[in-house]
Design goal:
- There is one protein chain.
- With 363 residues, this protein is mainly α.
- The chain has one domain.
- 79% of the residues lie in helices and 0% in strands.
- The protein contains 15 helices and no strands.
- The longest helix is centred in the C-terminal third of the chain and has 29 residues.
Amino acid sequence: MRSILKYKRTLGILIAAVLLYLSFHDLDREEIAQIISETDYWLLLPAAFFAFLVNVFKALRWRIIVDPVKPMPIRKMYSIFSVGQMVNCSLPALTGQAARVLVLANGAKLPKTYCATTVVLEVLFDGLSLILLIAAASTIFVVPGWVSRSGLLGGGVIVALMVVFLLIVHNRRRIRIYGRRKFKRRHPKIFNKIRHVARSFADALDMLKSIRHTLLTALYSLCLWVSHALVIVFLIEAFQLDMRPAGAMVILAINSVLLVFPITPGNLGTFQWACVASMALFGIDKESAVSFSIILHIMDLVPVFLMGLVFLYWDHMRYKDIRDEALKEAEHADDAGKAAKAGTKTGKKGDVDVEQEVIVEGD
């Protein structure tokens, strides 16, 4: 499986190189120099402040999600978030998300399945908050139709997942009894293997039972997206761009999706290309868009890497150890996916088929 991971890294670098070329190859250097000279750098200070707040709110939200199972000090959770997010941004595809899960699992002594489920809950609350902001903006400004349609589609998927999760939370006992009746006697080995994983998954979803924790999670989600939007607004003013606030929401939507699921290491190339493409919809020239994307990318990454390095030093952690462990977890995930796919093709009623059943084990 190491060859697959090497292939992913190589592919990520190639994609970054191609998109960087498409973004930079035909730029007017004199115009870029003029744009830089006319930029109001004082407005970059409040932009940097709100960029820092984005990560603070993300760490506070993660702490609230974990709180019902493992109350944690703010400082410790901020350390875990910063280091995990730094490794996440440095690795391609979903390998970086495995790093976040590992840092939380090791730092808080929690099951990996539970930690992975908290990351899923983060993504769901991010999606809901972003859709609410786009909906609010569309009542005041004209939002491109494709953005509205994407928001409706994404909102439908997120609401459906939330409903499924709530049904699991409120029917844990029934699902547990059903699982025992159907699978414990027939397949005791498979049942014993998956019941602890299923319990950790359901434990993470139990956060949704608490109105206080759910509301605080939603509040922190809204605060971080408002802060992120303000970063873009201040940069628009700093670059003196003729762009409506609706344009900021489009950039925010694309930017957030890329940061959640990095395609290339640090989103290099993909980020610049996405900003250029989205800003072109509002008549912004390529030189201004590229200059804007570079500063916005720096605003997104510098707080993450700066605080990640600080906490690596303070808490005596090693980046190489976390990265290598995340790569091993990715190897295991690839092996499991390959085995499941092979089992499906052969059509055998063996262990792989049984493992695909959803059983949620309670206390």
